[in-house]
């Protein structure tokens, strides 16, 4: 994945839909499912991370918890959900150790503030989902090594993420042979092999379904290939994980709507962090790029800036239906940017300034409880450590069972 942090690249209509209409690319039969997903510890998530992936993680938890809004069949079909902060993937690129430690802690606090992981007292009922640090479960690295012995180098070199990194290192897509060789020397084995580690992340828990973005389909196919290779050689251990298509929103940069919203963009005004203050949010939305057409219409090809604002409004408005004093009778299932554009026009709202004001209000209302909860959690380090320990222990219980089976199949169990 551009690593695991890019689990959020598929089209999304609204949060209300994602709460109840999570489907697989294959026809989902009534079955017991184990869902796994991971995210890199990049510190504070931005709005795109939240609307694109994290909200859907919370929706999946509602299935496991038995939300009354979902059918009994769909609830029963979810056996376990595991969410991991994947530090081993993060170090495939150079990291400042002090910054990485801080960002791991911030990532955990942010996910908890968004509703991912344990809810309420840790001593109470079993958490709705297991939330843990990948690097605290050493079986991830062990299983990855087993898989490394089954995976061809040529297959890894054909992965689109490796080729894109190679192009960057070689200063362009059309590198000569000598330039490619030099570029390869500047890249590290971990970057080439991280899709294998990713497969280990998934298969260690015998995950049957994995929420991924469109740009991650190739990596999930590799996970399936590796599982199939292992099963064929040593005997069946792993299910073949299925793509879980979750309706998501691809949020674009506020300053360059031709690009996705990203933490790596040099201009901080291009993104809204989930911890931004109302003043910061209003300033960033006010400066968002639009166009010279004062009308409000949804056209993601010709009017990317305005369409991006409408998409954000639709995603936020789905769970805050009176956000920004914009009252509407549109049902939550129907909240889509083109429908919102028509409703805004019908109510006499015109011009980008008015639209931006409404969008800013919606974002502020959406993120207010998350920002407040994060501010509380980041100071409660003992609680964060307790959550991490609980998740580690739960994950290791499952991981140890899988690895005992793997070692026995391979012939590396106790003599």
Automatic annotation (TrEMBL):
The keyword Magnesium does not apply. The keyword Nucleotide-binding applies. Keywords: Aminoacyl-tRNA synthetase, ATP-binding, Ligase, Nucleotide-binding, Protein biosynthesis. It is an enzyme of class 6 (ligase). GO terms for biological process: mitochondrial tryptophanyl-tRNA aminoacylation. Its EC number is 6.1.1.2. InterPro entries: aa-tRNA-synth_I_CS, aa-tRNA-synth_Ic, Rossmann-like_a/b/a_fold, Trp-tRNA-ligase, Trp-tRNA_synthetase. This is Tryptophan--tRNA ligase, mitochondrial. It comes from Naganishia liquefaciens.
């Amino acid at each position: 994945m551009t690593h695991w942090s890019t689990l959020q690249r598929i089209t999304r209509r609204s949060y209300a839909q994602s709460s109840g209409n999570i489907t697989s690319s294959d026809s989902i039969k009534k079955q017991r499912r184990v869902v796994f997903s991971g995210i890199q510890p990049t510190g504070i998530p931005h709005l795109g991370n939240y609307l694109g992936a994290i909200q859907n993680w919370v929706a999946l938890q509602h299935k496991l918890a038995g939300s009354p809004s979902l059918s009994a069949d769909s609830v029963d079909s979810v056996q376990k959900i595991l969410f991991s902060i994947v530090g081993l993937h993060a170090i495939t690129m150079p990291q400042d150790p002090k910054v990485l430690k801080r960002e791991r802690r911030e990532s955990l606090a942010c996910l908890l503030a968004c509703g991912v992981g344990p809810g309420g007292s840790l001593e109470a009922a079993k958490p709705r989902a297991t939330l843990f640090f990948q690097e605290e479960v050493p079986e991830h690295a062990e299983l990855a090594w087993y898989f490394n012995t089954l995976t061809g180098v040529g297959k890894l070199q054909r992965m689109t993420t490796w080729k894109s990194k190679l192009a960057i290192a070689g200063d362009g897509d059309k590198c000569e042979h000598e330039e490619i060789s030099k570029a390869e020397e500047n890249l590290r084995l971990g970057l080439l092999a991280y899709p294998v580690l990713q497969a280990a992340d998934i298969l260690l828990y015998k995950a049957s379904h994995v929420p991924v973005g469109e740009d991650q389909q190739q990596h999930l196919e590799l996970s399936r290939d590796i599982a199939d290779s292992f099963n064929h050689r040593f005997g069946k251990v792993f299910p073949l994980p299925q793509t879980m298509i979750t309706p998501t929103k691809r949020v674009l940069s506020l300053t360059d709507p031709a690009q996705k919203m990203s933490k790596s963009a040099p201009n901080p005004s291009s993104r809204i962090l989930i911890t931004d203050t109302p003043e910061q949010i209003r300033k960033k939305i006010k400066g968002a790029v639009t166009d010279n057409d004062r009308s409000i219409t949804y056209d993601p090809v010709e009017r990317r800036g305005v369409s991006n604002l409408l998409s954000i409004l639709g995603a936020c408005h789905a769970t805050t239906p009176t956000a920004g004093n914009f009252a509407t009778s549109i049902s939550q299932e129907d909240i889509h940017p083109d429908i919102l554009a028509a409703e805004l026009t019908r109510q006499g709202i015109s011009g980008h300034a008015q639209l931006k004001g409404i969008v800013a209000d919606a974002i502020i209302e959406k993120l207010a409880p998350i920002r407040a909860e994060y501010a509380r959690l980041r100071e409660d380090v003992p609680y964060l450590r307790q959550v991490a320990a609980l998740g580690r222990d739960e994950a290791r219980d499952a991981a140890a069972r899988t690895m005992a089976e793997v070692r026995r199949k391979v012939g590396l169990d106790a003599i």
